[in-house]
Amino acid sequence: MSAEFANTEHRDYTGSKLGMWFFLFTEILLFGGLFLVYSAYRYMNTAEFHAAATGLSTVLGTANTVILLTSSLTIALAISAVQRGSTRASIGLQVATMLLGLLFLVNKYFEWSGHIHEGLYPNAPELLARSHGQILFYGLYYVMTGLHGLHVIAGLVLIGIMLVFTIRGRINGNDYVRLENAGLYWHLVDLIWIYLFPLFYLIT
How far apart are CA 180 and CA 149, in angstroms? Predict the structure, then answer.
């Protein structure tokens, strides 16, 4: 009976991982479509896209890239720690991941606030006075980075739930698949930013 239960539990874990991978695939399709739209518009408005990109802060973009890459490391270490039975270390690393994610959002808030203060936001007179290509660039910038920001928030909520589960002992050295799935989602969020960063910040 115990062996049968163990096999059932294993099948549940496998199904959980497959479900997460399927969900991540749909997310890739979503952002993949946006990347294709961006590529098409950039091809048709190359000079205007380059001109508009000069208004973005490469320093902030680079800082956020480092922050997210570091957060991918901390969540990976958190999973490794709980697999070894180091619950306290895993909790600390999950908290660190959340703090890094919040820091990313804070940087993005200040970046967006600066652009809004300059009048560079959708339907703003200052932006509408620019070329069609630059209007398209900032429209895509807000849509794609904004959608990514929502995914960061969702990831923080998910990791927060995993943190509570870890504290309560529901995630431990024998049961950590949920934390692994949360880590996979967070890695996808980071990977998407790795593509967004050069598209918007490094084309000047």
Answer: 21
Give me 6's structure tokens.
């163990």
Query: Within a 13 Å sphere around the CA of 105, how many CA atoms are in the beta-carbon half?
Result: 17
C-alpha distances (whole Å) from 20 to each of 15, 177, 202 are: 9, 11, 32
Measured at the alpha carbon of residue 103, what is the angle toward residues 24 and 146, in degrees to the nearest 5?
50
- pLDDT for the residue numbered 9: 45
Q: Give CA–CA dist 184/18, Å, rounded.
A: 11
Evaluate the CA torsion angle 75, 81, 84, 87 in order and state its sign. negative
Q: Which two tokens stand for residue 1?
A: 């009976």
Query: What is the model's pLDDT at position 12?
Result: 60
Exposed e or buried b per residue across 13-26, where buried means at least 16 C-beta atoms within 10 angstroms of its C-beta:
beeeeeebeeebee
Q: Which two tokens stand for residue 57?
A: 């802060």
Give backbone dihedrals phi and psi of 175, rounded to 5 degrees, phi first: -150, 90
CB atoms within 10 A of CB 202: 12
d(CA 109, CA 18): 35
Amino acid 16: pLDDT: 81
Residue 113's contacts (CB-CB under 8 Å, 6 or more residues apart) are: none
**CA separation (Å) from 58 to 95, 128, 187, 199?**
27, 24, 22, 12
- Residues of the chain falling short of pLDDT 50: 1-11
Give the total residue count for the chain: 204
